[in-house]
Design goal:
Length: 279
């Protein structure tokens, strides 16, 4: 009886590893070839990928549209910034920063709704004609408002992640005032403006960082869920100790991406944009 728990843990560990190998292998085999093809498959699960609303490297669109590119670049920037300041800080930002994030979220919602309304009118003339557009949408506003939303996601998610997994989480915030947030906002704005130059030197890393950001955020969320389900809250002091929950989180994230990819491909028959984007 005394050997049962270790044996059960070993069997469970093997199951997680095998599941990860099967899911990762299956996803790599079934998705389009090449590094860009894999990035496209990740973007395909979360983004409409409309060509006219995406940044381009020559004639090749990025895996994510301008708004999603901005959002996940912003999220990655926000997470990296927090980890540099204090990677295990678990308190939410000061209320003034949360208010600023709320304003960025509202801007994201307004621009997204206005852009969607404009799209409906362009593909279905006469539809919703009585509802005016506030302005003509453009990729500049898409990437700026997207990155603002990405910052909001990062500044809420990482403290929650730290509070869930670390035994030695720091009971402080990376944003006790608007000053460090203003620095982060400035860095994000500079990266946005660089991305909007559409220089291949900038867009190649932006394409892959943004798609890795999708996978990273999903992995963080599912790792938290896994840790709570396994009742391992606040049980770790290093990433090396929590490789199994991280692997489980990555596997579940890929299962979600693969499921959405499969459903979307079944509905549309293409790895490209939704059919309504043709006009």
């Amino acid at each position: 009886m005394s050997t049962s728990p270790p044996r059960t843990k070993s069997i469970f560990k093997i199951f997680v590893i095998l599941a990860a190998v099967l899911v990762i292998t299956g996803w790599l085999v079934e998705t389009p070839p090449g590094l860009f093809g894999k990035a496209d498959a990740i973007g395909y699960a979360v983004c409409h990928r409309i060509d006219e609303r995406s940044l381009q490297i020559g004639t090749r669109q990025l895996p994510l549209c301008a708004r999603c590119t901005g959002m996940y670049l912003g999220a990655v920037t926000g997470i990296v910034f927090q980890m540099v300041i204090g990677r295990k800080r678990c308190k939410l930002p000061h209320w003034s920063v949360i208010a600023a994030l709320g304003a960025l979220t509202v801007a994201f919602g307004v621009d997204g709704a206005n852009s969607y309304l404009y799209l409906i009118k362009s593909v279905s003339p006469g539809a919703l004609a009585n509802i005016p557009n506030i302005y003509v949408p453009n990729n500049l506003l898409r990437i700026l408002t997207g990155s603002g939303m990405g910052l909001a996601m990062a500044l809420m998610l990482l403290p929650a992640f730290n509070q869930t997994v670390w035994a030695d989480a720091e009971d402080k915030t990376s944003f006790p005032s608007l000053k460090p947030f203003a620095l982060l906002l400035g860095i994000t704005l500079a990266l946005d403006l660089l991305t909007l130059t559409e220089s291949p030197i900038v867009l190649y890393p932006a394409a892959f960082i943004s798609t890795v950001g999708v996978l990273a955020l999903l992995t963080m969320v599912y790792t938290m869920v896994w840790v709570m389900l396994m009742r391992q809250d606040n049980a770790f002091t290093s990433y090396s100790q929590m490789w199994l929950p991280l692997l489980a989180g990555l596997t579940i994230a890929l299962i979600q991406i693969a499921g959405i990819d499969t459903l979307r491909f079944w509905l549309t028959g293409t790895w490209g944009a939704f059919p309504l984007a043709g006009k």
